[in-house]
Amino acid sequence: MSDHATNPVNSPGFRLRNVPLLSRVGADRADTLRTDIDAAVAGWADALLLRVDRRSQVLISGGRAVLNRASDAGASPPENAVFLGRLDDGRHVWALRSDLKPPQDSDGPVEVLDLRRAGDVFDDVSAQLVATATALLNWHDSARFSPVDGTPTKVIKSGWARINPVTGHEEFPRIDPAVICLVHDGHDRAVLARQTVWPPRLFSILAGFVEAGESFESCVVREIAEEVGLTVTDVQYLGSQPWPFPRSLMVGFHAVGDPEQPFSFNDGEIAEAQWFTRAEVREALDQGDWGSGGTSRLLLPGSISIAREIIESWAAQD
């Protein structure tokens, strides 16, 4: 292995330049209100409601998620509603899986979009509310029966838990942690790879799910070895982002690899991988993202993904 892989010239300034889009905080999660039934009922009359349809789409207007009057859904929170938090003005916000209802007093055009396509235009409040609602509602859709004995479970804690009425056992929203890592040589080259199911020219950084009994750092080393055959060192944390499709948490890292080590695609997930220079990555970033239809030989993830933020942060280094 070359000297720069074991003793990397690794810039201490490499960090995320911006908070990943789905990690933004714009509302008070007000977790103490989840078990305060009196407060939930009292706040319902003035509360707002985010409607999310079966395709996890919401209504958007002017860069914000459309929030309806909660009281239109009934005199009290429906059993399947989930509490999202509290706005700066004190109003509660809930979410409900339902058909979408355009507002009667919208100031501009209304679109139907999902989080993947609209996350980059959301303000901070909308980004947090829609990400939380998507994660919670997706979990409820698949958690209606106890994993222990199959008993139908009931919603409790304002949508933040389910309970088995027979045993009293509580279930909480499941989160699947996954690592995502930029492998670089400590200088000006980084690895980008294309999954077998992706069209040509679409590349990103490497990712994989954490296994039982495994640390994030150990997962980075294992996944990169499995996917492209590289042995990496100097694994360092960058940041994290919820990815509610359906229930992941992406934990970002960077690590150092050796460009002289050959690639080997051991688990069948990766079709090809290459070392790209910082100049090549910058040129690809200037072309837009996967959806832009650019003509460069390299197309990169959209801004909603933490992968984009990691790549941009690395490319911005001198």
UniProtKB/TrEMBL annotation:
GO terms for molecular function: metal ion binding; NADH pyrophosphatase activity. GO terms for cellular component: cytosol. Its cofactor is Zn(2+); Mg(2+). Gene3D superfamilies: 3.90.79.20, Nucleoside Triphosphate Pyrophosphohydrolase. It catalyses: a 5'-end NAD(+)-phospho-ribonucleoside in mRNA + H2O = a 5'-end phospho-adenosine-phospho-ribonucleoside in mRNA + beta-nicotinamide D-ribonucleotide + 2 H(+). Its EC number is 3.6.1.22. One of its GO terms (biological process) is NAD+ catabolic process. Keywords: Hydrolase, Magnesium, Manganese, Metal-binding, NAD. InterPro entries: NAD-cap_RNA_hydrolase_NudC, NADH_PPase-like_N, NudC-like_C, NUDIX_hydrolase-like_dom_sf, NUDIX_hydrolase_CS, NUDIX_hydrolase_dom, Znr_NADH_PPase. The keyword Metal-binding applies. Residues 173-298 form the Nudix hydrolase domain. Belongs to the Nudix hydrolase family. NudC subfamily. NCBIfam families: PRK00241.1. This is NAD(+) diphosphatase. The lineage of its organism: Bacteria, Bacillati, Actinomycetota, Actinomycetes, Mycobacteriales.
